[in-house]
Amino acid sequence: MRALFFAAIACGLLSSWLVDQQWLAAGLLLIWLLRVIRLRDRQCLMVTIGCVLSLAIWLNWQNHRFASIVQQPSQVVTSHLAVQPDAITVRGGQYQLIATSPMGKVLVRGQLKSATEKQYLTQFTHRTIWHVQGEVAAIAPPTNPGQFNAPRYYRSQGIARQVTVTAVQRIEIAPQRGWLVLLDRLHQWRQQFFLACQRLPPTLSRYATSLLVGIRPTDFQTTMGAVQQLGLLHLFSLSGMHVILLVKFLQWVLLRLHLSQQAIDIWLLGLLPAYLVLGGGADSLRRAVVTAALPIIWQLLTHQSSGALGGWSLALIMGIAHNPLVLSQLGGQLSYGLALLLILMPGLPPWRLAIWIQVISLPVLLVATAQWHLWSLAVNLVVAPIFSWVLLPVRSWGRALALVLPMSPACVNGCWLIFRIGLSGSAIGQAYSLSVNRVHCGHGRSVY
């Protein structure tokens, strides 16, 4: 397992150097390889060199492919696009799709012509084939410093080009054949769950879609200002916490069905990839699913338990191979970094763990967002356990009970409203205290 850990760190530095053009990472990679050589461990050296060379070839090919695609001139084409129902986003008078085409995976944008068309697009529950005419071009880079870097963001999803639709000729239901039937069904269930949640009270609907299937409404950022200010936005992203709760719940159910441990492991290996699709396949969720599945696979193959560090290392290597920019993004840095903290420092009291999480995440958050809330540590210490073991299960069971008890959604929505009001009060209190301090400083008084 030590060999995998050294190989994973080397692969992370390699991706930061080759893909993100961080030349400091090149120096750190050289130092890390010298450290591996000094270990005088032949297995560790061979695994590290093998992983680094394999990943270097893969990343260089990826760089060359994306560079060649970006350099291609824009052109008007007529093409057919395969679109999953949960890949359609409608904002105002525009729609946006993530589609598969003969050109590969593409970003699609178009203008809505009427309210009827908007309603039509938001009710799809099956994979569809769009026959469109439009202009294909590279995704436009940012024009101002600090602006959202769309090419970088979409490259992390394997997308290098966008289609600006000028005319939609027709939309038809895609035929279902082969192994795609199961994948299509999972996307269909995800979209149907999202549509069902739209009939719930607004607060409950917003939290349900975010926490259970990873779909955030277009107004999520504006309505969750207090959550973002207090540094709690990570609680509303599907990650390791949700996977742990899911695995524990499935194990509890399967044990009550008197299944053997081997049968339970096989069920988990089948259900975890399905949840990865249902949850939207984000990098943090993929890391959690892979980390949970690899020890089970190792146990089935060798009848021996594997360490959590080995699962984390393999998950990082696989995550970089899937998304070379995963460690250049805030979500990936926090996901892998905090997961490693939990592995290397097990058994810490909750208050010490919360402090360490804030210490480690503070530099990352300051670099990425240039802001940090003074009450983040205290609020995380109090809210995170309540959220994990009370609010999240209540939210999940509340959605299930809604099918039987009509009043349950209103009760659960009230709990979430109280939670949201409490967070808003904390954020407002902090903002007020800062404004008072500024006034006192302006009058020459001591802030303390």
Strand content: 5-15%
Q: Span from first to last CA?
A: 51 Å
Strand order of the largest sheet: 1-2-3-5-4
Average pLDDT: 79
Could you say which overall geometry the principal axes of the C-alpha atoms support? globular
Question: Could you list the spans in which at least 5 consecutive residues all have pLDDT below 50?
Answer: 403-408, 426-448
**Which percent bin holds the helix content?**
55-70%
Number of helices: 17
Estimated radius of gyration: 24 Å
Structural class: alpha+beta
Largest sheet: 5 strands, mixed, barrel
- The tally of strands reads 5
Written as H for each helix and E for each strand, in order along the chain, the element string is HHHEEEHEHEHHHHHHHHHHHH
Question: In summary, what is this structure?
Answer:
With 448 residues, the chain is an alpha+beta fold.
Describe the protein.
This protein is of the alpha+beta class and 448 residues long. The protein contains 17 helices and 5 strands. The protein has helices at 2-18, 23-38, 42-71, 115-121, 150-155, 180-197, 202-212, 220-223, 225-229, 240-256, 261-278, 283-302, 308-322, 330-344, 350-369, 376-401, 408-442, and strands spanning 75-91, 94-101, 104-111, 128-138, 161-173. A 5-stranded mixed beta barrel has the order 1-2-3-5-4. A hairpin with a 2-residue loop joins strand 2 and strand 3 (104-111). The model is unreliable at 403-408 and 426-448 (pLDDT under 50).
How is this fold's topology laid out?
Elements: H1 2-18, H2 23-38, H3 42-71, E1 75-91, E2 94-101, E3 104-111, H4 115-121, E4 128-138, H5 150-155, E5 161-173, H6 180-197, H7 202-212, H8 220-223, H9 225-229, H10 240-256, H11 261-278, H12 283-302, H13 308-322, H14 330-344, H15 350-369, H16 376-401, H17 408-442
Parallel strand pairs: 3-5
Antiparallel strand pairs: 1-2, 1-4, 2-3, 4-5
Helix pairs in contact: 1-2, 1-3, 1-13, 7-16, 7-17, 10-11, 10-12, 11-12, 12-13, 13-14, 14-15, 15-16, 16-17
